[in-house]
Amino acid sequence: MTRAPASRALDTTPLWLKLSSYLVLSEEEKMYLADLERTIAREPPRTDLLQQGEKYRDVRIIRDGWAIRHKALPDGRRQVVNFVLPGDIIGMYCTLFESADHSVTTLTAVEVASFPPERIGEMFRSFPRLAAALAWSGAREEAMVAERLLSLGRRTALERTAHLIVELLRRLSVVNMATDGHFVLPVTQEILADALGLSIVHINRTLRRLRDSGLIELNGQRITVNDVRQLASVGQFDELYLHLIRVPKRLERAFAGPRHQNNNKREDDDRAKA
Amino acid sequence: MTRAPASRALDTTPLWLKLSSYLVLSEEEKMYLADLERTIAREPPRTDLLQQGEKYRDVRIIRDGWAIRHKALPDGRRQVVNFVLPGDIIGMYCTLFESADHSVTTLTAVEVASFPPERIGEMFRSFPRLAAALAWSGAREEAMVAERLLSLGRRTALERTAHLIVELLRRLSVVNMATDGHFVLPVTQEILADALGLSIVHINRTLRRLRDSGLIELNGQRITVNDVRQLASVGQFDELYLHLIRVPKRLERAFAGPRHQNNNKREDDDRAKA
DNA sequence: CCGACCGATTAACCTATGTTGTGGCCGCCT
DNA sequence: AGGCGGCCACAACATAGGTTAATCGGTCGG
């Protein structure tokens, strides 16, 4: 992995880390990405970054902290669609819609970068590989939602819970936020319940079962997964849907346009084995 | 709506109809779209167009017939993620992934167009508005999955079922496949059950309740919705998530690149009110 | 230090939905 | 014609998960 010592700080952006797990970015692309993340704001916990029904504003990149994407029924019942972690993007395709059909709310204090949606189009034109990497990230998010749908429709409470924990572990690992099996889960049981389509009480029962069976440990917000293998097996976790495999060759053919000369020779060779 | 009598046949493509509900396409774009749908195949019912774990092939456009997108657990439990209707696209971002995390299976005989994934990139470069319209269609699909997640997590069986029927009615209306409240539902109760996360028996009970309350009628595969309003209210249906509103102005700014000269003057004015 | 509130925990009870099993209809095969 | 398989229908029973309610330990503002 090419790493210019001078620009090292850029390398540690969660989005950069995530995209790097997919393809190797050139210096130029890295710089462009850094520029996208230039305008940074901080928000306290329990802030709405976006509200159901509201018009979309800028595209946001979460740089630090947790948030949830959720939808509510008029009578107050709520479903958490997904967790938004560092390196995740909010409203990537916001230009396409008039208004948001979901809300995004911070769970912790959060650091967010934002940029105007026009830059997405700009990126598709000038940095197609980078745009493809962002599209990958978006498509992956959709795949996670579909997988959660499978959970809610066909997995038992125990399976769902196990599955979610493994998923979070995997996602956090990519951005260096989980070290051998433990991570911080800044989430109340109510939110877990809303994510898994269960009642608070039942989530509590289920977590107790997982603890009693020794698969996980909970100390405050720190969760430790003692045996990922076994937990994954309980949750029927098949990581296919996370699409963590390196970009296939044909990506180049599809997204790198003729007017974008190849400035990634080294990395291309790098990836030949995939 | 501008309609050249000579090219009328092109207008009736379901995908064209769907995209037209979003933005007005130019003649040039219409021709490009027609070209994408040039290679056509027919498949019988119960054919897998795509299998979980398999490598992606071409991008497909359903021109006629129904299919389902579904995921399965190793032990056979199955969740239908979404229904694939005429005008829907399969594997739009397939280049980005190594292999499919879901299957697509036909329910009826089906007519599908297919084209190599490279053309998506080509379209982003040469017909950005059209590409944006396809991206809209994709993002909308994701929104539907999220809404179904809300259903499975937080709606009761009766609500879910009502919601799904209204959703299908709306989607089919866009492609002229539903006329005042009735349409063909080529779907067994088993498939409905798998779509709604219920057992066959319970779907049966639930449909009977809807029939008994006079909200719907079923004759074979023909379903008639007697009172959409009331059914929508039972299902807490809020069509926000279908994003049927015309494209907002700023789409142009974001996606229409400088090198694609505006060849849609008339339609642009057309849309100014939005 | 006090009161108020929030979140976790657990028990007791309840119900929406799952399971099992039977029968009936219809289309298809031979 | 007869038999078979797929699908619908419905009844009887079983249970996963929901609801209600009570307790407890923190923590925060004053």
How would you sum up this structure in a few lines?
Two copies of one chain form a homodimer. By secondary structure, chain A is an alpha+beta fold.
SSE arrangement:
Two copies of one chain form a homodimer.
Chain A (H helix, E strand, L loop, with lengths): L7 H4 L2 H7 L6 H10 L3 E4 L4 E3 L8 E6 L2 E6 L5 E7 L4 E2 L12 E4 L3 E6 L2 H9 L1 H27 L2 H18 L7 E3 L4 H8 L3 H13 L3 E4 L2 E4 L2 H7 L15 H6 L9 H6 L4
Antiparallel strand pairs in A: 1-8, 2-7, 3-6, 3-8, 4-5, 4-7, 9-11, 10-11
Chain A binds a DNA duplex (30 and 30 nucleotides) through helix 8.
Protein name (chains A, B): Crp/Fnr family transcriptional regulator
Organism (chains A, B): Azospirillum endophyticum
InterPro entries (chains A, B): cNMP-bd_dom, cNMP-bd_dom_sf, Env_Response_Regulators, HTH_CRP, RmlC-like_jellyroll, WH-like_DNA-bd_sf, WH_DNA-bd_sf
Assembly state: homodimer
Radius of gyration of chain A: 19 Å
Separate helix tally of chain A: 11
Q: Of all protein chain pairs, which has the greatest interface, and how many residues does each chain bring to it? A: A-B, 60 and 61 residues
Question: Which descriptor suits the 3D outline of chain A?
Answer: globular
Share in helix of chain A: 40-55%
Order of strands in the sheet with most strands of chain A: 1-8-3-6
Number of strands of chain A: 11
Give the ordered list of helices and strands of chain A: HHHEEEEEEEEHHHEHHEEHHH
Distance between the termini of chain A: 15 Å
- Strand proportion of chain A, as a percent range, falls in 15-25%
| Overall pLDDT of chain A | 88
Biggest beta sheet summary of chain A: 4 strands, antiparallel
